[in-house]
Design brief:
By secondary structure, this protein is an alpha+beta fold. The protein has a single domain, classed as Trna Endonuclease, Chain: A, domain 1, CATH 3.40.1350.10. Helices cover 44% and strands 27% of the residues. It has a 5-stranded mixed sheet, sandwiched between helices.
């Protein structure tokens, strides 16, 4: 008799729209997920770039150095030093090298230069300085010296 009751129960899902719509992602949720993935990809690329620089004998002075209001709030991804040379590095994570190089615009380069000048003045640095770009494409690292 128990089996007969189970067989006669209505086990088909009801056509309630709330049941079907609760698993559908909205475009805002997808956009937020995309932003989180982009942020994580950037953090991974910066980590790979720092390890690459350490293997080449550089000491990492700052990671994600952010300047104040006077330089339009620029962020320098990595500041590294070896001997009498400080390099300011912009890290780009893209599927290929060409799009990574094209991702640095003229206004962004101007903000990075202003942020680097502010950093050098605050530290009283009298040595050499250089702007580099490190493009991380998957696990491949390409280092462009004097790029900006």
């Amino acid at each position: 008799m128990v089996h007969w009751i189970w067989l006669t129960m209505d086990v088909a899902p009801r056509t309630n729209p709330e049941i079907f719509n609760r698993h559908v992602k909205t475009s805002k949720q997808n956009h937020m997920r995309s932003n989180v993935n982009t942020y994580r990809r950037g953090l991974r690329a910066e980590f790979i770039a720092r390890m690459y620089l350490r293997l080449h004998g550089f000491r990492i002075l700052h990671n994600r150095y952010i300047t104040g209001r006077h330089t339009n709030r620029a962020e320098i991804d990595i500041i590294a030093r070896r001997g009498n040379l400080i390099i300011f590095i912009e890290v780009k994570s893209r599927p290929d090298i060409r799009t990574a190089c094209d991702a640095i615009t003229t206004p962004q380069a101007r903000r990075l230069r202003a942020a680097a000048d502010t950093y050098l003045i605050r530290r009283g640095w009298m040595g050499d300085a250089r702007f580099d770009v490190i493009a991380v494409c998957g696990w491949r690292v390409t280092w462009f010296k004097n790029a900006i």
